[in-house]
Design goal:
201 residues; 6 helices; 33% helix
Length: 201
């Protein structure tokens, strides 16, 4: 790892991507994190890969339009009592969304959280270098620094190596943060989340 960050986009005046806290729908406000990563990924692909997934004005992504898009995504990644707690549920939902949009160039595959750290590290570099944000699921986690990411979907959109530590850029809640990737990946629990691999046919 050296350093690479994906370009991104602003929602409204200062939202770095979307945020589930914007939704007035109760369940989306509580558990819409998976849908937000799918919405952000869709907008990213429209901007940088020429897809047509976001139905609103790409030149002026307002918070109101983003909320509407999130509600369009809701049936595919519907919040539920246990959350979207597996990669399979997420992938199947996004596949259905892509099918209904007539987008057949993109595909998704799981990368289980039980995979070794070295493999995960390599995947992050490859995906970012290839221009793909990485939907990531963390379930339980033992590190206090990960408290905001427990039972949560977010995007990894960059990596860098600094002072002997591999860092990843994590996007969620309408903002971003750099986290140590070895900490993020080593949850301390047997049940893992993982990452979703994007590719283009």
């Amino acid at each position: 790892m050296d350093k690479n960050e994906l370009p991104y986009f602003t929602v409204g005046e200062n939202g770095y991507g979307g945020a589930q806290g914007w939704f007035t729908d109760k369940w989306m406000n509580i558990g819409g994190c998976a849908a937000v990563t799918a919405c952000d990924s869709s907008i990213y692909f429209d901007l940088y890969r020429g897809t047509r997934l976001y139905p609103k004005d790409m030149n002026n992504i307002t918070r109101e339009d983003y909320i509407d898009f999130g509600m369009e995504m809701k049936p595919y990644l519907k919040p539920r009592f246990t959350g979207i707690d597996t990669l399979k549920i997420y992938i199947n939902g996004v596949k259905d969304f892509l099918f209904d949009k007539g987008e057949d160039r993109l595909y998704l595959a799981p990368f289980d959280g039980k995979e070794p750290y070295r493999s995960a590290r390599s995947l992050v570099k490859t995906q970012i270098d290839d221009g793909f944000p990485i939907p990531t699921l963390t379930l339980r986690h033992s590190a206090p620094a990960m408290a905001d990411y427990v039972w949560h979907w977010y995007l990894i959109t960059g990596y860098r190596y600094e002072n002997g530590v591999d860092l990843v850029k994590v996007v969620t809640y309408g903002t971003w943060r750099w986290l140590a990737f070895d900490m993020l990946w080593s949850t301390g629990y047997s049940r893992k989340g993982g990452m979703v691999i994007w590719g283009e046919k």
